[in-house]
TrEMBL record:
GO MF terms, alphabetically ordered: glycolipid transfer activity; lipopolysaccharide transmembrane transporter activity
Cellular component annotations (GO), alphabetically ordered: cell outer membrane; outer membrane-bounded periplasmic space; plasma membrane
This protein's name: Organic solvent tolerance-like N-terminal domain-containing protein
Keywords: Signal
Length: 580
């Protein structure tokens, strides 16, 4: 300790004018980096204990750039420490720290601010925040650091403010300076704020640039409408990434998109989010962009889209796409989609779905009912422009309506706006209805339809159309034609079948009767069919041929009738065999 002037007082104390205390490393006194100097206007030192008291403009020179300012400070030579209960201000490269009460371990270069710590950091070198900046647009390339910026230039940049109610601990070693904020920590920059119980910041010892920051305990981060919650939030400067973790479930929430998972990784410059574990995602439709809500149905409800997965999720903001893997569930309105791989794209300006492509173990459940309520296949795709969903299967996809109906086809397209279904390629429909006779067994009244080209279903008029080499069979009856239309009744079962063209009908219940014509109507509840022809329909039964304008096949009563000037022709066995 030295000073400008020194006076010995009666109470064995020295009074020193402009005192200066210098502490040096015991092992290397010449090491300037470990030298600490304390100055003030007035000082006192106990002659016996060598303890000192400094007052008025106290300054602790921790290194060439870092200074601590306060009004008074007590110096203890035994443990080489200084202490004050007054407000302190610490300045350094790119930062200013204030607080109430301070203790400095000069030998170990460790410092504590007792409470109410507040730190201001330059945003250029110490950007703690991880969320992607809004409005940068797709294809944004982060600006490279400008090494030519002056201190005055950096002062114009947005600063980071950190506050805490508890102690701030400042550790200094050869490689890093570590600052630990405790109790009700708040870190803010512009519209972004992070709250936590504890915040640890690692600064490069030479450049004073932030390298890493870890917030822990009741973490809540917000930026505009975006909110993140979890146990810990760690930020890394090298990768410009932040990891949000929670032992139960971390949350990332915004107006139209929410993500829940134990761990999330945010890549700020890349505008990317990785979730390497199981989680869930919730999408809220943007009602402003739904024309139907503005016009036709103002009271319509547009429910959330919920996605759950057990593998991982990757979201790419610039590409507006997300990929989900393993045991995926997608819930939307009354529909459920299960698969093992899901690729989703979003609109450019919001998180309304633009398209999706699901593969591997595809299973769809639709609670709205109708022709089907469950579908199974290998792949399903949807896009907003056509508002159509396409289901593929190898060798075929399957549609089911509980245990009563099954449809198989290689490709099935669902047109949502037109409420239509198109099955392309060779397929079949099987319906286990109660059929014509309500007391019969279902295996006798079940209806099976096969086709070669396609099936079309219109849910508005409840009509199914089958094309090319169509065959309808029910118990002992068979009907074939080039095109067959089936109509659903009020109970959702096929109630009427109509076919035109090259019509052939066979009834085992009517003694093996056969009908040939150009038009056939089959009323299933009445168990009756009507055949017409051009010019006449033909009935073959028991070795005879009957030609008439109409032939009635009444399976319910076990009889056949006709009208329209019929005529008959007997068929000999030889002729019959020749016909066959």
């Amino acid at each position: 300790m030295r000073g400008k002037n020194t006076f010995l007082l009666e109470n064995d104390k020295y009074k020193i004018i402009e005192p200066e205390i210098e502490l040096m490393d015991d092992e290397d006194p010449g090491d300037e980096a470990k030298r600490v100097i304390i100055t003030s206007d007035i000082g006192e030192m106990d002659k016996i204990s060598n303890e000192g008291y400094l007052s008025d403009n106290v300054v602790v020179h921790l290194d060439k750039e870092t200074r601590l300012y306060t009004e008074n400070m007590q110096y203890s030579p035994g443990n080489k420490s200084v202490h004050t209960d007054e407000f302190v201000t610490i300045t350094g490269t790119g930062l200013v720290i204030t607080g109430k009460g301070c203790e400095v371990d000069l030998a170990n270069r460790k410092m504590w601010i007792i409470k109410d710590a507040e730190m201001e950091m330059d945003g250029v070198k110490n950007d703690l925040f991880f969320m992607y900046e809004e409005g940068l647009g797709q294809g944004h390339v982060p600006e490279a650091p400008d090494m030519g910026k002056t201190v005055e230039d950096e002062k114009t940049e947005e600063k980071t403010i950190i506050r805490s109610n508890g102690p701030l601990v400042f550790d200094r070693d050869a490689d890093f300076h570590v600052m630990t904020f405790n109790d009700n920590v708040e870190a803010a920059k512009g519209s972004t704020t992070v709250f936590s119980d504890k915040l640890v910041i690692f600064l490069d010892a030479e450049t004073k640039v932030t390298k890493q920051a870890i917030a822990s305990g009741n973490v809540l981060a917000s930026q505009g409408s975006k909110i993140a919650k979890g146990d810990t939030l760690s930020w890394d400067a090298n990768t410009q990434s932040a990891i949000l973790e929670d032992a139960k479930k971390a949350e990332f929430i915004r107006d139209d998109l929410s993500i829940y998972a134990a761990k999330m990784i945010f890549y700020k410059n890349a505008n990317k989010i990785d979730v390497p574990c199981a989680g869930s995602l919730r999408i809220k439709p943007n009602e402003k962009n739904i024309p139907e809500k503005k016009t036709a149905d103002a009271d319509a409800k547009y429910e959330m889209i919920n996605v759950k997965w057990e593998g991982k999720m990757n979201y790419m903001g610039d590409a507006r796409e997300a990929i989900f893997e393993e045991n995926i569930e997608v819930r939307r309105d009354d529909s459920l989609l299960r698969c093992d791989y899901l690729y989703v794209t979003f609109n450019d300006n919001n998180y309304d779905l633009k398209s999706f492509d699901a593969k591997d173990k595809v299973h769809i459940v639709d609670k709205k009912g109708g022709l089907w309520n469950e579908a199974v296949g290998d792949q399903v795709a949807w896009d907003a422009q056509s508002n159509a969903t396409v289901l593929y299967g190898t060798p075929f996809a399957i549609l089911r309506e509980g245990n009563t109906r099954q449809i198989i086809s290689p490709k099935v397209t669902f047109f949502e706006n037109e409420e239509k279904i198109l099955c392309e390629g060779k397929g079949s429909l099987y319906e286990i209805g109660k059929g014509m006779n309500r007391t019969e067994e279902t295996d006798k009244t079940g209806i099976k339809v096969t086709w070669l080209k396609k099936m079309e279903y219109d849910s508005v008029i409840k009509k199914a159309g089958f094309f090319e080499e169509v065959l309808v069979s029910q118990s002992g009856q068979r009907l074939s034609g080039d095109q067959i239309d089936a109509y659903m009744g009020a109970n959702g079962e096929i109630s009427k079948i109509i076919t035109a063209g090259n019509v052939y009908f066979y009834s085992e219940d009517l003694g093996g009767s056969e009908g040939f014509g150009t038009f056939f109507t089959w009323d299933l509840p009445k168990n009756m069919g009507v055949l017409t022809g051009s010019p006449k329909a033909e009935l073959r039964k028991e070795g005879s041929r009957t030609f008439s304008e109409k032939v009635y096949f009444n399976m319910a009563e076990g009889r056949i009738t006709w009208e329209g000037r019929p005529h008959w022709q007997l068929i000999s066995k030889e002729a019959g065999n020749a016909d066959k």
